[in-house]
Amino acid sequence: MITQPFDELSxxxxxxxxxxxxxxxxxxxxxxxxxxxxxxxxxxxxxxRSLYGQRVVQGGLVFVVVNALLGFDxxxxxxxxxxxxxxxxxxxxIGDTLHAESEIIDLRAKGDRHGIATTKLVAVNQRDETVLxxxxxxxxxxxxxxxx
Length: 148
Known about the structure:
By secondary structure, the protein is an alpha+beta fold.
């Protein structure tokens, strides 16, 4: 997502990730990790009678997978700063392949050593539907950490 020091970033920079298919294993592992065993995620028979007619991948899982698809450079990214306007616009189903797209929409200084880079982050499935949209902010170093 962010691979350059703060002062090298510019508004409008864009990136698109490779694809990532959401699997049954992903959903079950996330259920176990979070305790989110809602029937819409965990019960195939219940889900057949739901609005979508099938199990839906947890929104939290879609969010964490998508924001990581673009990758981070630890030598410049200090920390996750926050997320705003997070919306799940369409459901994600087991077997859907997601791509992440980002565009830098705001840059602001945060002290002498950092800045905050905000991107519009969207997840797009294999049907070219936007399933998630948010403003994703990172605390970014002005100077790259030296290699070890």
